Fold this sequence. Notes:
single chain; Rna Polymerase Sigma Factor, Chain: A; 8 helices; 0% strand
Amino acid sequence: MKDDFNEMFNTYKGRIYAYILAITKSEYVAEEITQEIFIKLWVAREQLHEIRNLDGYIFKIARNLSLNYLRKVAYNEKMSTELIRIASKDGDSAETKLNLFDYNKLINQAVDGLSPQRKLVFKLSKEEELSYDEIASQLKLSKNTVKNHHLTAVGIVRSFLIKNGVSSAIAIFFMLTA
C-alpha cells in the first residue's frame, strides 16, 4: 500500500502543484495546499481504491482548497479595509494605533477565561486550524460537542471584546483572523 501511495504521490505531485499555482499565484500556498492534499489522501488511503476517477477526485480537492484559500484572502482583505476605515474614523492618534495592537491581548485574556475544554477546542480551531471532525477525533468527543464548545467560546470571546470597548466589526474581524 505504501508503494502504491508513493507512486500516486510521484505521479500527481507536480501536476497538482502546477494546477494550484495557476489558481493561487503563490508558490508557498501551492506547496502548502499540495501537502495538505497528500495528507488527506494518506489519511483516506484505505478508501482510495473505491474512487472510480482518482484524477478527477484529486484535482477537485485541489480546486476546492485553492478556491477556499482565495475566498479567505478576499474576505480578510475586505475586513482589513473595513478595519482601517473604522480606525480612521477614530482619528490618527497614537492611542488608536496602539489599541489595534492590543486587541490580540484582549482575545488572549478572554480565551484564558474559558473553561479548559472550550479553551482547548477554541485553540485547536483557531491556532491549529483543525476542523470539527479533526478536533472531535483528537479529543475523543462527538462533532456536535466540539461545535457547541467552539460556538460558545467564540460568543464568549466576542462578548468580552465588545464589553472591553472593541467595536462589533473589529471584534468579528479579530475573531476571524485570530
